[in-house]
Design brief:
Two copies of one chain form a homodimer. The first copy, chain A, is an alpha/beta fold. Chain A has three domains: 3-139, Rossmann fold; 184-378, ANL, N-terminal domain (Rossmann fold, 3-Layer(aba) Sandwich); 384-481, 2-Layer Sandwich (GMP Synthetase, Chain A, domain 3), CATH 3.30.300.30. In chain A, 29% of the residues lie in helices and 28% in strands. In chain A, a hairpin with a 2-residue loop joins β21 (355-356) and β22 (359-368). Chain A is globular.
Chain lengths: 482, 482
């Protein structure tokens, strides 16, 4: 089994006095974080949490949460990163499916979910430290995190991300975007998502400062970019646009120290790219997913206009091919290979390999042009991306089907000026039901951002010859019913 | 077997139009180099060189040699990198020990060594291309290069450096010194040494430009540093001082784009560091060797004075310990672990593992201080470092022993203003022999830089109780005989 040094210890050893984390006006060095994490780990052991166990975490993006995550790393725990925007039912499903031995939560979530072995961060902090040896090495194949993704079936799958996956992802990104000892990543994406979490792994591997925010604030982001306090930031189209608006209003441009915005969640519209260019803000668009521990391909900022709509080329260790394509431009399923690809799932899908002949089949449809640039033309299972969050129609349809009045349901994304896309529902009913009743039903079972913004009662749903729902045709029903 | 993308192809795919190589006023992109290399590889196959074979290479640091090296990579050949400064006898030994199936040489060396299957670069270039499939993936455990190092016994050992070794070395350096897409490495160290060769591997992994020089020229180096044409350069104390002298004479300072000098071959004297600081030239001192595919530890430039004489801390993936030391400051053999450490040797030493319980025993003596900084106090086997070249006393002693007049011989390094150190020989003779005769004998069998600068005829050599030569006491005989 291949090993590598414990990242926290190695980083604290290499650059003890370098700034590691900023949060709400405070700042911590790598040595401070490592010492905090080791102490907190010893308290966790006092609370009965044993090294290598699987635990679920639920928190906001705070310095306290980072400390808990790093403490979990010190014990080499498998961290099930729960999305705090999920409904109580969704959370409960993931908790049970993951068979986490404990739930560690920010006290603000204490009433959201139940687990026989629940510990608030604050309660752990009050425990005595139990002596435990923190291993100086980590197994590269060990699972570091588990993140749930809904996939095509509607049943969320717990995706394993190993030490190797996170390492490969961070290293490939460094070779692509560059890395300098004085980099600072402005992190306002939730750290329970791979985008935010990968900022933490980059921090440890690069020796990079993370400037962490509990909530996204476009003014803070704009000022950081303009002042050079931040050198990198992850965005989606929505947050990018909001930052640019502030910069335009205040007549700010990017500081020369600012390196790039890393933009995920689908192509950035040309008008946004033009606005960014006018403010000297480079935008590198990327294609990634939970199963690939972040970026698989990234488009260099200077190619944003020449390859408009493209997600770029694979990072150094990665390979991408289009299933069945025999020449450039042919569409097919995007398949991915590389050390950043998950080895598999936990829970209900533990037996299901994500790989087919060594390739991850993404479920997304795309093509590679004659210059080798990837274009994603259709997200898997008609994925809806709303304000950077992935929404799977199948999950919402399942919830609608569970309503007694509903016979059939189909969900698709519709354009929205604020969120990019929002879900809309089309239902065939057997008895009268109001939009409000359907909405209330969904609110009970789904994260708020997944609740359809509109409900349409229709005669029948569009299906193909094999009787398969054609979600892309749902949008036509919207016009009919208006 | 773990695989990764073919570096040349992946780099040419990712950044085809980026400048890859500069040499004598010409310039090549990554795509051009990859295409050249593939064509040259096909010609090599026409000359009977088969993929995965072991070949020996003898050349100067030229664009042509880089093309040959990259062509060898395309065929996944094991490249035995011969040192062009060696004597004919030394070269012949390495050729035979390595059992290379072919010798590829710059025509200027055509009369230096003999091998039944010798091809000048120019002759291969005239061959027809034979169709061969260039593999798009590489095995990470495959041997990429073999470099001979003399070690303690006086018999040169062929050290294997795998794809993984070179990759790990380049990645760890990137995390330490940083890497940006517009980096340019001024390379005037020979590419048959790991220092120069690692510039090529960095180029492919980082997408970095190599500005290559056949001979070191301090004026070129100084102007490149001052103009920002180069951002990195590898030096030893000697070349560092020569560059600084030019910069001082011409009143040049380092351009803000210039990142650092990477200084190997032993600690840099304080006066040199002070001169560098005055010219804004950061100097990162490093401890590395052939067996570790370049750097193991590196001292940050900003710590040069606070940790004067130190070789710094391990790079991210590496671990260093002092054999037998129980507390900071205790001296012992420096032991090294990490993915950059050679898996072993070829030829006469193929059965000999370089590892002991998983650790490479460097043969060098050092200590780690209370802050974790490594200090190398004594190079293995009284290693002499002369102008950046390693010289092993045992090898020179073996040559002297082969002279009929010599009974006993001992060699040590003596300080030299120009080269840092030069070898001096102490011999006990049984019949009269002149210094000129001994020098002529050495010149026949040794690289010029290894030939002792002084020969002292003495009564007896200093030996310890076990009759082991105490080379460190030889220097006292010098005083006696003057």
């Amino acid at each position: 089994m291949e090993q590598m040094p414990n990242w926290l210890m190695q980083r604290a050893y290499m650059t003890p006095h370098r700034e590691a984390l900023r949060f709400e006006g405070r700042s911590w060095t790598f040595r401070e974080l490592e010492q905090q994490a080791s102490r907190f780990a010893k308290k966790m052991v006092a609370c009965g949490i044993t090294p290598h166990a699987r635990v679920a975490l639920l928190g906001y993006s705070t310095a306290e949460f980072v400390q808990v995550i790093y403490a979990c790393m010190q014990l080499q725990l498998e961290m099930v990163m729960l999305n705090n925007r999920l409904s109580d039912e969704e959370l409960q499903y993931q908790l049970e499916d993951s068979e986490a031995t404990a739930l560690l939560i920010d006290a603000r979530f204490a009433d959201r979910v139940t687990h026989a072995n629940t510990w608030t961060f604050a309660r752990i902090a009050q425990a005595e430290e139990t002596d435990v040896t923190i291993s100086t090495t980590w197994q590269k194949e060990a699972t570091m995190t588990v993140m749930y993704t809904s996939g095509t079936t509607g049943f969320p799958k717990g995706v394993r991300q190993t030490v190797r996956n996170h390492e490969a992802s961070a290293l490939a990104s460094a070779l692509n975007l560059g890395v300098r000892p004085d980099d600072v990543w402005f992190c306002a994406t939730p750290i329970f998502h791979i985008s935010g979490f990968s900022t933490l792994t980059k921090s440890l591997l690069y020796g990079m400062t993370v400037d962490l925010y509990e909530k996204f604030d476009e003014t803070e982001a704009a000022l950081s970019i303009a002042s050079g306090r931040a050198t990198m930031i992850s965005v989606v189209a929505l947050t990018l646009s909001r930052i640019l608006t502030v910069m335009e209003q205040r007549q700010l441009t990017a500081h020369p120290r600012f390196v790039t915005m890393l933009a995920g969640g689908g192509p950035i519209p040309r008008t946004f790219l033009e606005r960014a260019q006018a403010l000297n803000v480079p935008v590198a668009q990327t294609y990634g997913m939970t199963e690939t521990a972040s970026q698989t391909t990234t488009l260099q900022a200077e190619e944003a206009f020449t390859k408009l709509g493209s997600a770029g080329k694979p990072l150094f260790f990665n390979t991408v091919r289009i299933d069945g394509a025999t020449k450039p431009g042919e569409e097919g399923e995007i398949c991915i290979q590389g050390p950043h690809v998950t080895p598999g799932y936990i829970g209900r899908f533990a037996d299901r390999s994500p790989l087919n002949n060594g390739w991850l089949h993404s479920g997304d449809i795309g093509y590679i042009d004659e210059d080798g640039y990837l274009f994603v033309v259709d997200r898997r299972a008609d994925l809806i991306i709303s304000g950077g969050e992935n929404i799977y129609p199948a999950q919402i349809e399942n919830v609608l089907h569970s309503h007694p009045a509903v016979v059939e349901a189909g969900v698709c994304g519709v354009a929205d000026a604020q969120w990019g896309q929002v879900p809309a529902a089309f239902v065939v009913v057997k008895e009268q039901v109001s939009e409000e009743q359907l909405r209330a039903h969904c609110l009970q079972k789904l994260a708020r951002y997944k609740v359809p913004k509109a409900f349409y009662i229709v005669e029948e749903l569009p299906r193909n010859g094999a009787n398969k729902l054609m979600r892309r045709k749902l949008i036509d029903l919207q016009k009919d019913s208006e």
